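Tokens in:
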């Protein structure tokens, strides 16, 4: 007997031949799949997280079984699905555009932009200092000061150099060649 199931967030089709969620257990593949669908198809989620506006999912992944087959071939444990690290500004979740990444890598390009009145990676030290402009980057989730300068431009150049070196370091630690290539492309932005 085939179970009749409602579409997930009005879109996804759970075609699993087993129980994907019970009181004591929820299939990890199913959790990732439904979270992805929620980000794209839940009005409540889109209202709370407008950065997902305009995002979509490849039609093959409408069926849970197709997504699960793809995910089983990935290095996913303890990681998060990402749609725009391989292809910046990508809005489509799909087998060719997605990769699983660590939290640190997932946050690598969202924790450093446009804060305050100064250039990226620069802040002005409060109080009297001989060299009041400080260059800093986030390394492995911690803010690290990398230099003190007389002017904002020199501090920004130091930030760019340190950021570039950090991206190369992170890229060299990746096992997935697609991630290495994507990170090395981003390095070019800091030259």
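Residues out:
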């Amino acid at each position: 007997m085939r179970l009749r199931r409602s579409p997930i967030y009005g879109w996804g089709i759970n075609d699993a031949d087993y129980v994907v969620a019970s009181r004591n257990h929820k299939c990890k593949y199913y959790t990732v799949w439904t979270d992805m669908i929620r980000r794209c198809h839940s009005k409540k989620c889109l209202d709370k997280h407008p950065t997902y506006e305009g995002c979509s999912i490849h039609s093959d992944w409408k069926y849970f079984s197709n997504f699960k087959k793809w995910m089983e071939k990935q290095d996913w444990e303890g990681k998060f699905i990402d749609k725009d690290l391989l292809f910046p500004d990508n809005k489509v979740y799909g087998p060719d555009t997605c990769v699983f990444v660590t939290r640190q890598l997932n946050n690598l390009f969202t924790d450093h932009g446009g804060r305050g009145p100064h250039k990226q990676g620069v802040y002005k030290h409060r109080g009297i200092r001989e060299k009041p402009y400080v260059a800093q980057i986030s390394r492995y989730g911690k803010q690290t000061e990398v230099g003190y300068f007389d002017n904002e431009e020199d501090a920004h150049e130091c930030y760019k150099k340190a950021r570039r070196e950090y991206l190369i370091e992170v890229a060299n630690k990746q096992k997935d060649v697609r991630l290495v290539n994507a990170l090395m492309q981003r390095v070019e932005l800091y030259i």
